[in-house]
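In line with agreed milestones, the collection of sequences with tokenised folds has grown. One record among many is set out beneath this paragraph:
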Amino acid sequence: MRIVVSNKTGVPIYQQIEDQIKAAILAGELQAGTLLPSIRQLAKDLQISVITTTRAYHDLEAAGFVNNVQGKGTYVLGQDSELLRETALRAVEKGLQEALDAAKLAHLSAEELHQMLDALISAGGKTDD
């Protein structure tokens, strides 16, 4: 698994780490029981603060994606597919609500929103219908 962080995205680095590890788990790239890099090793590899990697791992543990075993490391937890689907649905709903809020500010119609979504899907954000 390769993690890439950027200071230019506007997304906090700990969140970038969390998002990439979650995506790898959800995509099956990281299987249950996989040992993640240590907090210190990941910080060293990414040339970031240990505090940042600690925050990312703590949040991943709180969300049920990993388990920290004192003195042994942080391991990927097995995921319940229905729970994962619900988590993904909540994230989609949140993103759509943010888009709706922005659309209201821009005075976009429902038709314009539908056209934008269709264009985004056509451009590569395809879903499995």
The chain is about 55% helix and 5% strand. The beta strands are 66-69, 73-76. The mean pLDDT is 90. The chain has two domains: 13-76, 81-122.
